[in-house]
Design a protein that fits this description.
By secondary structure, the chain is of the alpha/beta class. The protein has 14 helices and 13 strands. The strands form 2 sheets. A 7-stranded parallel β-sheet has the order 3-2-1-4-5-6-7, sandwiched between helices. The protein has a 6-stranded parallel β-sheet with strand order 10-9-8-11-12-13, with helices on both faces. Helix 3 crosses helix 4 and helix 10 crosses helix 13.
Length: 394
Amino acid sequence: MDDDRALPGPTEFELVPTRILYIHGIGGIGGAERDLLAMLGALDRGEWEPHVACPFHTPLSDSLAKANVSRHPLALGPWRKWYSPLLRWHDVKNLRAMLGDVAPTLIHVNDIWWVPHTISAVRGSSGLRRAVVAHVRQEIEPQKVRRYRLETVDGVIAISRQVEQALIAGGVARESLRTIYSGLPPAKVGVPTANRTAVCRALRVPDDAVLLGTVAHLFPRKGYDVMLRALPSILRAVPSVHYLIIGTGERAYEEELKALAKRLRIDERVHFVGFQDEVTPFLSALSLYVHPARMEGFGIAVVEALAAGKAVVATRVGGLPEIVDDGRTGLLVTPNHPVELTAAILSLLRDEPRRKIMEERGVQVARERFTVTASVAAMERLYHQLMKGGQERR
């Protein structure tokens, strides 16, 4: 007998990657989606096998295909609208069937909106109960924690310390909670300045225009209307200013913004750039980044602005004070306050030496504190902890 034939082949010793299903019910791309794509790109595919359930034929689905991530079509309606009880059973049924087909070891819900669907689907499925991780990406009031069943999941990721404290106050156990900042790939930090002239020509603005900009979904909580109300005073002081709105979202809010710009007679200075697969060229072209949000759990776009070498004016809400070092990498202002926003923007536009110092510090902060490598390492530690506790979920 040949002894070699009795030995196991090399493939018998190979580890099988752990299958994770990420659930995301929105097809557009904003901060949460860019962060998901960055995390998936940094995962060790030898250890993890990511799958994503999301709406098909959308920018997110297309980006996942380019990243060679397995996708599964899923549309989930809202859980708490007045009509939701009429539809949620169908969504839960579809998700439960997907869980049977994909058979993930772990489930990572990429935002709170789909946690109730997921918990209902998991508890109704046969076999071992999969561990569920919920990613909380926005400010949340403690009383809303139980509405989205966040206290029932196995692991919770808070996007900032401010969100973490609200979750604890709402009943999430400290031992199941981790605060993990969103991060950027190292290659995106301190990248060379893009061709500003090309950006200006694409926007049909003068090469010497002073460009301000915001990257965010078009939702009222992002505060675009506050910036528009500040813009007339800014233009009186700096007539060459143009403002870029980079993102898509609610059509009604977009139309409201366009109507407001027209009433304020600033419509020629406001540019709706729409969704951009790569925002760095636009960020690099800015003179100053502005984030006028009324609510913001973290603000990955602000990190991207720092990484692109831009000083930031942002509101003092949510996780933004954890990103912007007030007076060192930018300025923080009161939300929903056009006058204060105007003053902060003008103070930095008028003081180029101070702005340049902030820009240099911002790149350093992005490099030291906000890398996707650190984010994914922390996330993987949580995954491993949940897998060790899997026997308790039989």
